[in-house]
Design a protein that fits this description.
Layout: H1 3-17, H2 36-39, H3 46-54, H4 61-78, H5 84-99, H6 108-126, H7 137-145, H8 154-167, H9 172-185, H10 205-217
Helix pairs in contact: 1-3, 1-6, 4-5, 5-6, 7-10, 8-10, 9-10
């Protein structure tokens, strides 16, 4: 793989890695993830692909593209079809395979022109993803899974309220995720005023269930 081709592969990989729906494919899956390394024989993630490119470990375009496909393929193996990460991986792997046709490229110059055109198309296609860009897939998953479940008990609601109210002003991630949940479950709720106040008594059952599930996911 010559320097020009390598730089294009780096550019494409960085663009893929920058997409919000790909954030969970950036780094190595934690060793503590139960069952993952028994199922997955060749772990791969975007930062590893970039490291391989920079250190010249790929001898051909196909070696690089195979590792990109492995990222999505591993997610398809480990997750269930109804999982959000499975849906993202299936969509992304299909589009990547359809759009990147390296074997038809005969020279670095034609390859660059070809890939630039394909990336424009790929970016447009990514905008049609089943997951809204900018929404954390796991937050989306929590909201979807709690649509028709029984609401939390009064004790559970109190625990959620205490957990969130203690953290919403000093932990940015909690603040962002709680607001993302409420934007979906309470679209008419005005959350623009500072400081943010949440009256749990007026929230609907779906909001309470989603917030309770979110709290459990962070424990």
């Amino acid at each position: 793989m010559n320097e020009s081709v390598k730089n294009q592969c780096i550019l494409i990989t960085r663009k893929l890695a920058a997409k919000p729906m790909h954030r969970y494919f950036l780094d190595k899956v934690p060793e503590s993830t139960i069952g993952y390394y028994e199922m997955i024989k060749k772990p791969m993630w975007f930062h590893q692909v970039l490291e391989n490119l920079i250190s010249n470990k790929y001898k051909s375009i196909s070696e690089w593209s195979d590792d990109i496909k492995t990222i999505f393929g591993n997610a398809l193996i480990f997750n269930q079809p109804e999982d959000v990460l499975y849906q993202i991986a299936k969509y992304s792997e299909k589009k990547f395979s359809e759009e990147i046709r390296y074997q038809k490229i005969e020279s670095p110059k034609s390859w660059i022109n070809h890939v630039n055109e394909l990336m424009k198309r790929f970016i447009l296609l990514a905008g049609k993803s089943p997951i809204s860009q900018g929404v954390d897939p796991l937050i989306f998953d929590i909201v979807e899974r709690t649509r028709n479940v029984a609401p939390p008990t009064q004790y559970e609601n109190r625990s959620v309220a205490e957990y969130i109210l203690k953290r919403i002003d000093n932990i940015n991630e909690v603040r962002y995720n709680v607001l993302e949940i409420l934007k979906i479950t309470e679209p008419f709720l005005n959350m623009s005023k500072e400081p943010i106040t949440i009256d749990f008594e007026v929230l609907g059952n779906h909001s309470k269930s989603a917030l309770y599930e979110y709290m459990k996911s962070r424990e």
